[in-house]
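Sequence and structure are no longer studied apart. As an example, we show below a sequence and the tokens encoding its fold:
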Amino acid sequence: MADFKTVPADAPMGVKLTTWLENRFPTAFDAYKVHMSEYYAPKNFNTWYFYGSLALLVLVIQIVTGIFLVMHYKPDAAQAFASVEYIMRDVPWGWLIRYMHSTGASAFFVVVYLHMWRGLIYGSYRKPRELVWLFGCAIFLCLMAEAFMGYLLPWGQMSYWGAQVIVNLFAAVPFIGPDLALLIRGDYVVGDATLNRFFSFHVIAVPLVLLGLVVAHLLALHDVGSNNPDGVEIKARKNPKTGIPLDGIPFHPYYTVHDIFGVGMFLIVFSAIIFFGPELGGYFLEYNNFIPADPLKTPPHIAPVWYFTPFYSMLRATTDPMVNVLCVIIGLAGLVSLLALKGKGKVAAVVGALVAIALLKTFDAKFWGVVVMGGAVVILFFLPWLDNSPAKSIRYRPTWHKALYAIFVVFFIVLGYLGIQPPSEAGTLIAQVGTLFYFGFFLLMPWWSTIGTFKMVPDRVTFSAH
């Protein structure tokens, strides 16, 4: 009792209530200070830094709307589609809750892709933030699993057949593929057992893991501090008396107000889509998904929802000719290594190239397509150790680096578009070039990230009031 704070009898009621709570729950107030009022963030954040808080907002929207949907949804192959229609037509405001959830899924990926892009251009994955990036990539992987499982639940035509195609891909894994696909489906075909297990994972298991990763992501971020557009460590310059970074400002109230503006802009766009175009031309909600699942009628063109299509496009691009091209590239790389390296390094490079070519020719292209699709996500985890650039931020890198990043974005968007379209010879060729560029961008980064004339990185952040 001796450590309790006291307030004068004539203090305002708000002060009395706050003091009462702080005396009985000091941990919450300490956490508020550490992560809000006494967490010092760089003063030069720009609009690219909206997307972290927006991702948190969309996560809350998804959880809240998901809770209300679960109240009326029936995870049964015979009733699932009808229960969704019941929510849309008969449950008061059910159509709004459903559209908030379905549009929220697409909004989540829009925000997360932009958040990851900001980390990419400003080097937010570099030391000492490697763990922050790894947690973020794990969140992205978790989101993909969550979205895929949720995509099956409406039990429409595209839900059913999209799940059929994706689950069957696991059958291409050598030795364990058929058993793995059977384990995921819970049956020999996508059916009631599949729907039940996907519902369980979508509603309980994956969200728990996702929430844990989000907390770990935020804690790791606040332990090392936020990056900024200049890539300058603000903790390197502190006030000798107070220990506060000279270029830091308290997250609250400065960036809470900053983020409220971003939230307002986001909600305007989000609401406009929900009320005036929730399907967004069939990209957010495919028109085939408004037709009940029919195992006897295959849609003319099966494609996953838009946020998976860049990776799906890479999967389709991995054909037998593509595997042959990869063999030639690996062979040329081994030949260059033979001429450039010496001693044991030369032998290791040649043996590695021969083993890689042998593996490529041993298994069929469908299996390597699955590897490419998964590898496109997994390679992001290694980014902190692939980038050797002397400058973190794109601001201080050579101009041609910026062009390379721009080409990367263009190819990623093109791959996403091609993944939605029916296969064609021209589309497959472009997708193959885009796939090679995507992996080349990362695998060659240890080399190209060090080339060029870099600008002088300032000692302190550059900032102008706005």
About this structure: The mean pLDDT is 91.
